[in-house]
Amino acid sequence: MGFNRKMQGFSVLIFLFLLFCGHETSHVVKRSIDPSASYPLITDDRLPKDVIPQSYDIYLEPNVEENIFSGHIKMNLTWKSDSKKISIHAHFNLDINDRKIVLRKINKNNSDSQLSDNVSVVRGSRFPKKTIYIIYLKEVIKQGTECLLEIPFEGSIWESGEGLFKGSYSNGTYLATYLRPNNARRLFPCYDEPGFKVPFTVSITRPSHLVTIFNTPLARTTNHSILKDHVIDFFETTPPMSSFTFGFVTSNLVKLQNEVKPEAELKTQSEPVINLWGFEDNVNQLKEVREKVLLAHKAIQSYFEIPLPLSKIDVVVIPELPVVRPVDNWGLLLFKESDLMQNRYYDIAQELIYQWIGSWVTPEWWTDAHLNKALASFLASEIVIKLDGGIEFNGKYPMTTLYSIYYEFSKRYPHSRITAMKQETISYKMELVIRMLNFTLGKDSFQKGLRAFIENLQFKTFVGNDLWSALTTQAVKDGTLKSQYNVADIVGTWFAIHRLPVVTARRDYEKNTATIQQKLYLRERPHDVPEQDKMVWWIPIVLNRQDALNFSNCSPYVWMEKAQQMTINNMPPNDQFIIINQEEIGPFPVNYDERNWQMLSNFLQTETGRALVPTYTRSKLLHDAWNLAYAGDLGFATALNMTLFMKFERNHIVWNPVFTFIDQIGRHIDMPEVHKKFEEYVLILLTPLYEDLGAEIENEDNWKTDLRSLTKRFLCGAGYRPCVEEAQNAYSVWQHSSDPNLENPVPNHYICPIFKWGTMEEWQFGIQRVIEFPKSRKQSERTYLLKTLAGCPTQPEKVLRLLELSILEDNSNFTENDQFLIFSSLTGTSNGYYTLFKFLSDNWTTIREKLKDNTNLWDHLIGSATGFFLTQKGYDMVQQLYEQHSGEFGSAQHIIEKSLRNIKEEALWSEANLPVIETWLNNFLSKNSSKSS
């Protein structure tokens, strides 16, 4: 979870995890949905402000055996305007008997605030289709009146992570609450909006052998007057807080005893005590977790310099907690054991930060929850970097996050399929914009502004402008932002436009000036997004020049104030480069004129140059060049020149994007002769790195293991002889085993090289394993085998044989799902889709007859066989098929027409770029000899 989820969140397949996630326990557990994705879907069941709460007194009595609970709430209410009704939140599943509702006025003239006579309640009813309960009164209550409203209620204990729910583990059953974002109304009638912050005085019944942990410490315990072996816990009154931060857990977990610390390390009186709860048999692991919690809390406390108004924070570790993310009640955090036991700082830091910004200072409404999440995520990342130097991130932050949103926002239609993905990506973009402010305003000003923000809004709620105002005031005061500027104006452009810009700097080397332009960043063709000329951003131009390199200075040279173009003066001499947006300060790529790119390439090929340019900046320059070339904004020869320094590069952060480029461009070369040269280039590029990494050793850094694995996989795919030989040796063992269907002993990364570079006999052995695959084994193994049998071979005869077996011969060993998988797998390489197209063309009549009643498979076949060509040759082939079988495409008519439109656009790219790529490769290969031979 946590940072791993954050890093993986941008793959569409992985992103489905963010939509639906949960773990089965001994009872039925409904799938839980990440609330961060669902905030925009929350119905706007807002309450009127004529009557508002001042405090709650709540009693809860759960009955775990019957999955129900009962309770009683006393609300101290104040009338802000005359009214004869009270509107509160109550879920449909919360039972309220309006005959038992009691309302009494409070006599404020009496020093003891005694209660006067009852106010008659006429009836109570629910607002249609909303979780609002309206209490109608017999008389109008005047403005300024205070009353005590008493409501008994009953409800259900859920078996999913919402409201009051129960779960089980090996040692028993527990009860817990998860009220975010608006599930407090499932537990008790209340004003279930973040803006209503009041103190809670709470008492809860529990079996005497269990323990209940609440937001605040236990004050006292009494025996239950009716229930045998039950007691009632009375807790200290909470500070004013929103209803969603209310929480408790009842379990048989134990508190880890705090070890006595040296006097110098004892907490100050104003800091909360940190308690950790879990199983006794996990004490040693819990000690390690507690140490990380204490270190993270100390670092956050040091950053904010504002102690929480809490006497304790309980961190509860629960096995199989059925929620996507930790439960962050105020003063009470619930973690899934499997997540917390991974001993990462990020998850812990993020949840602790929510205690300050989220619980103490709270978003006014859920539309600001993304900002809250983005701010907490950024600060948690800063804390991790402070505590362990970022080792936990393995070099993936912020680059993996940044590159992923670059790809998504550069599409013609971003987030066209998955709404939750859109919400997550927007939140990540907010985080990167906050990171940009931290750099450009200065870390000191940003930190002071954030402190002022918290100090001004203690026990209150905020909207985005409250944060921007605090940062503006501090930055102007410190001189890091011009007085005429406003942070709200800057961020407004980044949040209003769900896109990203690209900045281009074209230098006039005679005048020593540079023209800076901004436009919408688009990779996917055609670049025909409506109204893109109207999309402009406030962009910080942080500039470094070769004659005065200083990557620690992040102050903008100038701000582009929503201007499409501007000119800057005093550029360095014409033999010296500039770098804009070092370290990815802002979330935008940067393009230069070819001369500046060439100077950068030459500089990075020197040992001194690589030492002077920081890691993230080297990675950025490489990433920007390739993606701008892919988008058609930069010549490919220039982009390929930027890879020449990789011969000497050994930092995994710089290498991370290279594998994506190899894959993307490799798939985009729709000419076998050019592709073969590209694979030889890959061998020359990666072989020195792989050899330098050497053999895996015990307890080596994760980055090194990951880099070696990636390098080997791509080398194998490019035909690296040692890898192919290793693969064939491992495969031979399988071929000669006594029962090859019992298991597959060959590592997955060897399977594709075997089917790509191996013999027909080796490939046929793989086919036989698919046909004879036992039902007792994991079917995912068969799926992987079939996928590689189709997608890896370069020899058409292998693919054609598989298509004959699975389509023409009615082989019962191949299901319809297999056929879908085969078609999809063949779209990954030009060899694959060329062969599939030939198979379709040569067997049109037979295939059309076989699939006449299966439009889904027919449509998928037509899309796979015609939709991936990238050259004029491919367009001509598809056009000929279209004309030859006019009127025969049926349900796939629109699919082939779309294919033709797309191929025409891609063919323009190929026509412009493939000759350039081939020329560059010819020149490169003539100067370098491959080590793969």
TrEMBL record:
Family, per entry: Belongs to the peptidase M1 family.
Membrane topology value: Lipid-anchor; GPI-anchor
Keywords for this protein: Aminopeptidase, Glycoprotein, GPI-anchor, Hydrolase, Lipoprotein, Membrane, Metal-binding, Metalloprotease, Protease, Signal, Zinc
Name this protein carries in UniProt: Aminopeptidase
Gene: LOC111598636
Domain ERAP1-like C-terminal: 577-904
SUPFAM superfamilies referenced in this protein's UniProt entry, alphabetically: Leukotriene A4 hydrolase N-terminal domain (SSF63737), Metalloproteases ('zincins'), catalytic domain (SSF55486)
Organism of this sequence: Drosophila hydei
Cellular location(s): Cell membrane
Site residues, Transition state stabilizer: Y428
Active site: E351 (proton acceptor)
GO biological process: proteolysis
Residue stretches making up the Peptidase M1 membrane alanine aminopeptidase domain: 298-494
Signal peptide range: 1-22
Cofactor(s), by name: Zn(2+)
InterPro entries listed in its UniProt record: Aminopeptidase_N-like_N, Aminopeptidase_N-like_N_sf, ERAP1-like_C_dom, M1_APN-typ, Peptidase_M1, Peptidase_M1_aminopeptidases, Peptidase_M1_dom, Peptidase_M4/M1_CTD_sf
